[in-house]
Every structure is written in C-alpha cells, then in structure tokens.
Amino acid sequence: MTRSERDLVTAMRDELAAIDPSRPCDLAAEVDGLGSEPTGREASVARLAHRLRRSGEGRSQVTFAWTTAAEHCRTAWLRGRFLSRGSLSLAGGRTHLEFVVEAGAAPELAARLAAFGLPVSWRIRRGRGVVTSKSGEAVGTFLRRIGASGTLLEVEARQVSRALRGELNRVLNAESANLQRAVSAAGRQLDAIETLEADGRLPQQPYLVRLVATARRETPEASLSELADRLEIHRSAVQRALERLERLAAMEPARPVPSGRGGIALS
C-alpha cells in the first residue's frame, strides 16, 4: 500500500474517531466495541476511548447486548470494533478489510458483520481469530454506514481516476499497436509494388489493382479506409488489391521457355 493510500486509511479512521455518540446507548455500545485496550495505532483512537469512557462516567451506564440492540447501537458497536481491532488496505485499488480478535470471538464477530450486511470469512491464524472481507463494494457500504462517508468520497474518486487511467492506457496501447501494424503493412505493400514494377508485372495487373498501387505510392501513410475514400471504392476492394500485390511479389516471375518452333514463348 502506498503512502497516499495509508494516509487515506488514517484519515478515515480519524474521521470515525471524531464521531461522538449522542445517545447513552450508542456511547455504551461503542465503548463495548472498543474493548478494554484498543490496538489502533492512531492517537485519535486512544483519545476517543478516553473521551467516551470519561463521558460514560457521568451518565447512567447502559449495558450493550447485540441481540436486543437497536440498529444505531449495533452501528456504534461495529464502529468501535473496527477502530480497535480492524485494519483496512487499499493497495492497488483492491480493498481488504480485516479484524484480528480473540480466537473464540471470531465466529461471533463474523455473524454480526454478516447480519450488518458485510459478507466475511474467518479463520484462526497464530492463535488469533482473523475475520476478513475483500468485497470492495460491501466494505465501502459498511464503512459508510459506520460514519466514514467523507473519506470514502476521496477513496472512490481515486478509484475512478485509476480506472480511467487504466482504460486510457489500454486504448492508447491498442491504437499504438494498430498504428504499428498499419505502418508495417504499408511498408510491405510499397516493397511489393516496387518489385512488380521492376520486373514488369505491375503494368499487367487489372486497372483497379494498378489504381490502388498508385494511390498507395502517393499516400504511404493512408489507412485502407482513407485509400477507399480517395478512390471512391469499397475498403474490401482496396484490401484485396493490396493483398494481391503482396502475393504476386512473393512469387517468382514467369520465365521465358522455348517455343515448339524454335521461338521464345512465355509460360
């Protein structure tokens, strides 16, 4: 992940950490989601945990229970859980969301995230539970629901910009390849015309073939469509005439053979 992408993730976590729950139940839910020791490296997460716990001391304590909690309480709990145990990678335009929790807590967290609309998988890694999601669209929806709308706009703008650059590069590469093929073909056709003219076979060709040969020599950079427009004939007729010229040039010219009466005849 580049520094720019890491900065975006940090900005997103700072945005989430700046949210102050207005309801006592949401405050209790987020404190529960943060856990006793948030592992986030950002100072904003540590300040959030301190701020919420200090605010909770002056309020009536509300116990958080996921099964009976309202949707806004579940949102607050998941925001706290993401800030304390979650990490996000945006490397190369790919999204990877991961939570690292106690081994026994992984199945329950996975079920809660799935109920919240985020498809995840979980496994045990080095004695810890790891819950992951790689669905960029689903992760974006999840982060927006827990409050990261502002930073996600920047993430999405960069993804669109990256996609446009990729499409532009693809088009430019395709155009470059087509141009190279056209230049190579024109070179072969000019060589064929010179060969046929040198050995006297070009004047023997049908009028249309000679017409196309002349147009090609006068405008070596022209495409088949441009030659067709110039000559007011179908593009396929131009292509067939040029293919005929190349094919004939690749063949050895007919050699004169003695006639039956001692003269010279052409085979």
Descriptive tags:
single chain, 267 residues, alpha+beta, Endonuclease I-creI, 4-stranded antiparallel beta sheet, 6 strands
* Fraction of helical residues: 55-70%
Strand content: 5-15%
- Number of contiguous helices: 10
Name given to the CATH homologous superfamily of the largest domain: Homing endonucleases
Order of helices and strands: HHHHEEHEEHHHHHEE
Total strand segments? 6
Head-to-tail CA distance between termini? 73 Å
How can the largest sheet be summarized? 4 strands, antiparallel
pLDDT < 50 stretches: 262-267
Task: Write down the CATH class of the largest domain.
Answer: Alpha Beta
Tell me the overall shape: rod-shaped
Summing up helix and strand content along with how strands pair, one would put the structural category as alpha+beta
In the CATH classification, which architecture of the largest domain applies? Roll
Count of domain modules: 2
Supply Rg. 36 Å
Mean pLDDT: 86
CATH topology of the largest domain: Endonuclease I-creI
Order of strands across the main sheet: 1-2-4-3
Structure description:
With 267 residues, the chain is of the alpha+beta class. The chain has 2 domains: 3-147, Homing endonucleases (Endonuclease I-creI, Roll), CATH 3.10.28; 167-251, no CATH class. It is 60% helix and 10% strand. The protein is built from 10 helices and 6 strands, in the order H-H-H-H-E-E-H-E-E-H-H-H-H-H-E-E. It has helices at residues 3-17, 24-34, 43-57, 71-85, 106-115, 136-145, 149-198, 207-218, 224-231, 235-249; strands spanning 86-89, 96-102, 121-125, 128-133, 256-258, 264-266. Strands 1-2-4-3 form a 4-stranded antiparallel β-sheet. Helix 9 (224-231) packs across helix 10. It is rod-shaped, with a radius of gyration of 36 Å. Mean pLDDT is 86; it is low at 262-267.
